[in-house]
Every structure is written in C-alpha cells, then in structure tokens.
C-alpha cells in the first residue's frame, strides 16, 4: 500500500469538500481545473478512507470500453461472489451502482468519485442522461456525496454546470481548482525537502507556473537554472514535450486553441479579439468566441480591460507560464542538450521574457500586493493603461494599476532584476512623465501613487525619493491569499 503525500494548501477547497461530507443533505460536487493541477489528489486526500466507489474515465474510450471499465471497477469494490457483467447501456450501469451503494450506506455518508467525467461521457452515449436519472431518482434522496471531476473545464461548465436537462441546477458545490500561487509553491517544495530561496522559486515558477505535477519534477540540491535545464531541455525532461499533449487532452479541435495561444505569445501587451482573429485567420463567429472562453475557463489566458475603456478594449493575455516558456525557448531548442538554459539566460530574449513573466505573475498575485500595501479591505479594480499618442508627443504603457475606492490609484513600475534595484535619473524622469501623461489623459481626480515592485529591494537615492511613493519586492508575493 503506497503512502499518500501530505496535501499542501488548498484550504478553501478542503473546507468545501468537508462541508459536503458533514452536511445533512445529499451533495453533488463539481471539481473543475486544468490537467495536472491536482484535482484527483485533492479529492482523494480529503476523502481518504471514505470513498466507496471511484472510477476514472478512459481517454478516447468507446461507450463499450467505458462500460466494461465501470463494471471492472464495481467488481473491484464490491468483490461479489458472482461478478457483475458489463451492461448494455449507462442506465443499467448506474442501476448496478445503486444496488452496490445501498449495501454500503449504514447511517454514514458515503462518497462516489467519478474522475475525468467528460471522458466517461464520451460521444454519442447516453451517459449524461443516465447520470442525471441516477442523481434525480436515487442519489438526491440518499446520504451520499457524488464528486464529479474533469480537466476539460469548458466541457464541464457547458455540459454540467449549465446543463439544461436532468442536471439543471443540481450542482450543490463547485470547486474551480487553480494552480498554486507562490506561497503554496514554496510550501509544496518545502514539503518535499527542497530548500530554495525565493528568487530561485520565482525563476522556477516563471518557467512552469504553479502546476503541482510539474513542480514534483524539481530536485533538491539543484539550482533553479539546473532544474529548468533538466526538466525542460534534457531529452528525458518531463516538460520537453508536454505542450504537444496539453491542449489536445483538454479540447476538441485543439489546433485552433493552439493558434490563439501562439498568437498571444508574440506580444507582451495582450490582444483584442479583433487582433487575435486577424493574427490567426479564425472566423469572426461563435466558434472563435467559444475557443477564447474555453482557454479562459481553463486558465491559459486572462481577460482584462484597459483603464477607462471597459466596454471597448477587452484584451486577452497569455498567462500560462509553461506555454509561454515553451513557445519562447523550448520549442526551437529541444536538440541543444545539457546547459541550454544556462546559455539562453545570458541573451536579450531572456531579459525580455523575464520582465514580462514577472509582471504576469504580479498580476496573478493582486491580493498579496494589496495586503502589502495595507489596502486589503478597500474595493479595487486592477487594469492596464495604453495610450498611443498624447499632447506630450508620445504614448505610454502602464501594465498594472490598482484603482482604489478610497480615491487613490497606484501606478506600478515592475522591474525584474537579479540584484537590488537602483533607479537612475533617466528612469525617474520616465516615471515622472508617465505619471503626468496618465493624469492629463484620464483627467482622474484621484490621488496618484507610484509603486515600484522589484525582485529585490530598492536602493534609495535622490531619484527614487523624488518619484516613488512606495516600494515592494518579490517577498510580498509569497504570502497567503486567505
């Protein structure tokens, strides 16, 4: 019997699952999240010893193969003297499950875990209809927790959460499992006896994000550069070919999703829907809208509004760290062998990418930044600001601003450096001009504060004291969001 590793983080998600177990009502819990984010591990950890039946769908399996697999799993749990025979359809399969479960419910709540739910449903099967009947006619009247889980987030939302048939409004609790933030990543690595300082953890996060299954590849005793080189560039590296499997495992006709991802990887400013269609050649219609929604629901891209243009300038940005890193570096360097990342980390391409990657991570850690600024209790809206031309004869770009309900706005300057940051006279003038242009262009009556967010600390001097109102460093990102 294998030993289960400890569950790190996921406090809010654990609480949801525990409440479902302790409630006096039947529960239908949907757990949604991208591939390798830790959905199965979460459910198994919280419900250890309480799962009466568990099955994982067969990827690309036929209805016949799924039914046989279902029967095999049922026989494994029931261990009957006369084994169940594979049924002809899903309605009969769930009737078999009912017979099994009725012998297991003895006043205690029992858990049924249906993993990779979209794979079980497959195409042209009666699975969803039969599952809806199973819930409505039996499970909803018994002391059970039914957990359904799927990596195809968009499928789960469209076919389960927004189901118009027998499952309409039947979900009692929903978990949208996200990758680890930096705080959880640090905890996860420490739980595996990996002692790295925060700059090394940040570098690893910039390359592969907070996907637990990716982070499991990090080895103790190696630097961030050595780990990235091994995991991403060596012939046996786990992430060397992951990109080619990632999207097809989640989406039908994944080539179009990849087209969008590749297009967004070419710009740091994000793109409007119109820009994306022009770049990819995709049609202007419902299919393109669905692709963008699916990528957003699965956490690969993020939507944001330009400041002051909420109804017009909705922009899309590639925020999946691994996808960006793969397209920038791994794809064209897979044949260069050991030491590839050490060489690439000396290039201008690395400098450009690292600045964008750090900025993107900061955007994902707004709650931590607000906590560091002491404004956690203030309602805020985070956005960006772009101006192509102004009365000053030039445009500006503010990649992050926090618009506060207490009549203030924080304009951020985000700098990724490998040492403490020293603001030069030229940089101070640039910040001063940017602030003036923003004030003039927006006519905002709010107080403007310039916040410098660096990797390491700021070295104060006459230039920084004249333009910077507050400073933060990467340590502010390594705090719990709770």
From TrEMBL:
One of its GO terms (molecular function) is ATP binding. It comes from the Bacteria. It holds the Pfam family ATPase_2. Residues 9-218 form the ATPase domain. Gene3D superfamilies: P-loop containing nucleotide triphosphate hydrolases. InterPro entries: ATPase_dom, P-loop_NTPase. PANTHER family: ATPASE. This is ATPase. The lineage of its organism: Bacteria, Pseudomonadati, Bacteroidota, Saprospiria, Saprospirales.
